[in-house]
DNA sequence: ATTCTCACA
DNA sequence: TGTGAGCA
């Protein structure tokens, strides 16, 4: 499929799709016309890219991890052995981020509890 | 009608 | 990351 269908199927803009390619996250082939050609697997990749990006992983890391995730779920392929250590660091980063967010949440709770009307 | 590259109030 | 220009 070309970029137009990718936009419809992933909800991601053309701009971002091309940006992901620049970052090495997607490697669509080209038609003689220069048009990008994406595969069904690319649609799944975009979903993973978005999730990993939302988790705060740098595009460089995502580019390394993507080809190591198999269709069924989150199985690591052999070529990923050297990435385990890096993945552990990212995991810790997320753990620390959650801790900081909870601290912020606590501060907000204090302010909210001190005010008049309140919700959630 | 679509996609491409490049550039920037 | 959006937007628009100028092509193919």
What this model shows, in words?
- InterPro entries: DNA-bd_dom_put_sf (IPR009061), MerR-type_HTH_dom (IPR000551), MerR_fam (IPR047057).
- Keywords: DNA-binding.
- The radius of gyration is 19 Å and the shape is flat.
- It has a two-stranded antiparallel ribbon.
- The protein contains five helices and two strands.
- The protein has helices at residues 3-10, 14-22, 40-54, 59-65, 84-114; strands at residues 29-30, 36-37.
- The relative contact order is 0.09.
- The chain is mostly helical.
- The structure holds a DNA duplex (9 and 8 nucleotides).
Protein traits:
120 residues; mainly alpha; Multidrug-efflux Transporter Regulator, Chain: A, Domain 2; two-stranded antiparallel sheet; 5 helices; flat; DNA-binding; MerR-type_HTH_dom; DNA-bd_dom_put_sf; MerR_fam; MerR family transcriptional regulator
């Amino acid at each position: 499929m070309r970029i137009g269908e990718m936009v419809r199927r992933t909800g991601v803009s053309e701009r971002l799709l091309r940006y992901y390619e620049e970052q090495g996250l997607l490697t669509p082939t080209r038609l003689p016309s220069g048009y990008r050609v994406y595969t069904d697997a690319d649609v799944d990749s975009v979903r993973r890219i978005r999730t990993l990006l939302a988790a705060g992983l740098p595009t460089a890391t995502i580019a390394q991890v993507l080809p190591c995730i198999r269709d069924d779920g989150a199985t690591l392929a052999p070529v990923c052995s050297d990435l385990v250590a890096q993945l552990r660091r990212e995991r810790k980063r997320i753990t620390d981020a959650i801790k900081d967010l909870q601290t912020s949440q606590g501060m907000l709770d204090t302010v909210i509890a001190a005010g008049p009307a309140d919700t959630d």
